[in-house]
Design brief:
CATH class of the largest domain in chain A: Alpha Beta
Strand content of chain A: 25-35%
Largest sheet of chain A: 7 strands, mixed
CATH architecture of the largest domain in chain A: Alpha-Beta Complex
CATH topology of the largest domain in chain A: Nucleoside Triphosphate Pyrophosphohydrolase
CATH superfamily of the largest domain in chain A: Nucleoside Triphosphate Pyrophosphohydrolase
Radius of gyration of chain A: 21 Å
Order of helices and strands of chain A: EEEEHEEEHHEHHEE
Number of strands of chain A: 10
Structural class of chain A: alpha+beta
Helix content of chain A: 10-25%
Oligomer: homodimer
DNA sequence: CGAATAGTGTCTATCAGACAGTATTCA
DNA sequence: TGAATACTGTCTGATAGACACTATTCG
């Protein structure tokens, strides 16, 4: 008796989009959102995103959308960290048609201000906790929440924070990245000890720098070559 | 002057598949692969997977494929952990057409043996390291590598291991899960101390059980309700 | 008995949290 | 001078690795 096999199913056509959770880590933690001009969810805020084109990889589509929506030039783009976050494909997440969205997390140390003429869409920057509590188009609150949690946990076990400060930085600036993203304050002395004890995290320079708000001159550091933090810097829970 | 906007792009049709990295954690760590009967990559081994249907979510498609390819009944399925791993969408990953694949990681404490008549496809179980070194269809080596790393790191910071033993188990059995997945041996006494010190990881029963290979009777435990391991059990690197 | 496993206890080095105290700069 | 920041140092409790030792069971 022949083994029964499921009928070979044929591919169904799907629309594939990328959606970007772009977080700016400055004195606050903010997310970039765009106001929708068309149905569905017209006038609601949404994550920036768009359709993947037939001739580009999904990663390329994410980088292209990021550039288009922020007005960042290809030269500035490498300074922005971007990674895949997850894929959202519920049947009814878009009322128009079946859309599968691949979400990306992008992190920037400043808020790119789209300027007219660069092709960028009008965007707004909203504090993340406000955006999480508010109403966004589609399932974008869920995606934003996932992005926020990913950003927070990546600070724990990678050297990601060094890409969210200027090329040279003080430990106070590095600590502020953790405090802004985790929304908790860290002990100055213990943070210093931990960072300096971790091989490959930061490298001291000869330079000193004085903060705008007074205080003693701080040693200036560069990012080290390490990518992982072993053991991790854990937030309190 | 009107602000220049990018032309509103229209959706292009994509085929969307799910691919499953199904790992069985027994005395060995093995991955389920299927032999391809059609081009492209005919006769090569590949991860089990298939097209997402128009009326099912991507998560549902992954569970359906898992059930179809393993012959597991809906009753057995809840015992198998499954989670989204990542999405692979390079332009040329499938020579036939543009295919975006959403990969899932599934973990089982036994090797489901597909039986004829259940609709299951013929599958083989291969030790993971052998499969990683070998040649697989499409970009499946990359997907498998990502799945393996995900499984290893999830044991560190979640209670996932308790879903890879029987409903009641000894600490020796739990430790074996770690040793098989991490491929390193752990100190018996230190493992015990760590597991018992972690709230919500395991709950002792009154029962004792004697191992097949002799030794003193071991206390039998059930899984606790906790999901996270804080602080994590870290493997050596 | 010997091998294998379960379980207890101990020593030590390391590390994180808490916090005191000093130094340097700006307003 | 006072506020703010940088930096050093110390105490303590928790924890992980290493490992010795005992107990129980099978063959």
């Amino acid at each position: 008796m022949a083994v029964t096999r499921p009928a070979l199913s044929r591919p169904s056509p799907f629309a594939v989009t990328v959606d970007i959770v772009l977080l700016a880590v400055t004195e606050r933690l903010e997310v970039m959102l765009v106001r929708r001009g068309v149905e569905p969810f017209r006038d609601l805020l949404a994550l920036p995103g768009g359709f993947v084109q037939p001739n580009e990889s999904i990663d390329d589509a994410a980088r292209r959308e990021l550039a288009e929506k922020t007005g960042l030039t290809p030269t500035q783009l490498p300074g922005v960290h971007i990674e895949q976050l997850g894929t959202f494909g519920d049947v009814d997440r878009d009322p128009r048609m079946r859309v599968v969205s691949v979400a990306y997390l992008a992190l920037s140390r400043f808020r790119p201000v789209p300027t007219a003429g660069t092709g960028a869409v009008e965007a707004v920057w909203i504090p993340v906790d406000e955006a999480c509590r508010g109403t966004l188009a589609f399932d974008h609150v869920e995606i934003l929440t996932a992005g926020l949690e990913r950003a927070r946990s990546k600070l724990e076990y990678t050297t990601l924070a060094t890409s969210l400060v200027a090329p040279t930085f003080t430990l106070g600036e590095l600590r502020q990245v953790y405090e802004v993203v985790w929304q908790e304050s860290l002990d100055i002395a213990n943070f210093r000890r931990k960072v300096l004890a971790t091989q490959g995290f930061v490298v001291a320079t000869n330079e000193k720098r004085i903060s705008e708000s007074g205080g003693a001159p701080a040693t200036v550091y560069r990012a080290g070559t390490g990518k992982d933090l072993l053991p991790p810097i854990m937030r309190v829970r």
